[in-house]
Specification:
This protein is mainly alpha-helical and 281 residues long. It is 78% helix and 0% strand.
Length: 281
């Protein structure tokens, strides 16, 4: 109603001005002319009146269009702001859902199993070579009884039998895949880093272990004899993930393999696991 009233006032004002100018023109004109050429003067004055009203209509139309454009811009700005708020809320909700997943009872099993695999790889380089090879679609190694006999974490499982050990090891290794995929999802929320940092995903605890896997992946991928790996598998996928997570949590990522191993081998947490002395910078 306010808009209708505004437009009505503009129309009346324009008509009043045009008609006023027309009447004023008559009042100040030479009335003697009217008596000499009444018909032409009447039509001429009417033509001027209608021309003025037409011009007024054009002005009013332009005014209305400008007014509509201004309102449209305001509506678009308001819609964009609302969409941004909804998008941010959706991101925060997604991160909170990830956090609830991380804290769930089921995920505790994933973390425990992943821990067993990673510690075994740190303590035994032969097992680490096997584990890393299983990340790639070709050139994978086999798990032997000799390797199994040097994994203290799985000693009880091995006592039952080698097949029992292989089942338990495979179960735990698949859980490591789930853990890595979880942190891949988290790294893709990089734009919501403030929300992520306020939820404790214990990244500082996992960081040296992830860099350990990333360093091994990088070395395995670039080995001269692993040309099939380079042909059929992607490069550095975990390294890119950890670099994103470092950015979110404000860490400075190692620039090359030498810096990666320097960080790993000097990390107090890694040292406490009795790292295999065959690892070197």
């Amino acid at each position: 109603m306010d808009k209708v009233k505004k437009y009505r006032n503009v129309v009346f004002a324009s008509m009043f001005i045009i008609i006023g100018m027309w009447v004023g023109g008559w009042l100040f004109s030479d009335f003697n002319i009217i008596t000499k050429q009444p018909v032409s003067d009447i039509f001429g004055s009417l033509s001027a009146l209608f021309g003025g009203l037409a011009f007024s209509g054009v002005v009013i139309s332009i005014y209305m269009q400008l007014d509509e454009l201004a309102e449209t811009r305001e509506e678009l700005a308001s819609t964009a702001k609302s969409n941004l708020i909804v998008a941010n809320e959706a991101k925060e909700k997604a991160i909170l859902e990830l956090y609830h997943t991380y804290c769930s009872e089921r995920f505790q099993t994933i973390k425990t199993s992943s821990f067993k695999i990673l510690i075994s790889a740190i303590q035994n380089k032969d097992y680490a070579d096997f584990m890393i090879s299983r990340f790639f679609v070709v050139s994978s190694f086999k798990l032997t009884e000799k390797i199994a006999s040097n994994l203290p974490i799985y000693s009880d499982d091995l006592k039952v039998g080698f097949n029992n050990f292989k089942e338990k090891e495979q179960f735990d290794r698949f859980r490591l895949d789930e853990l890595i995929n979880f942190f891949i999802l988290l790294s893709n929320k990089e734009s919501s880093k403030e929300v992520i940092k306020n939820c404790d995903f214990f990244y500082d605890w996992w960081r040296p272990l992830f860099w350990f896997v990333a360093g091994l992946q990088d070395e395995y991928y670039h080995k001269e004899e692993n040309s099939l790996v380079r042909e059929y598998s992607k490069e550095h996928y975990l390294r890119r993930v950890v670099e994103k997570l470092d950015n979110i949590y404000g860490h400075k990522s190692p620039k090359n393999n030498q810096e990666i191993w320097k960080y790993i081998l000097k990390h107090p947490k890694v040292i406490s696991y009795n790292i295999d002395n065959r690892y070197n910078i």
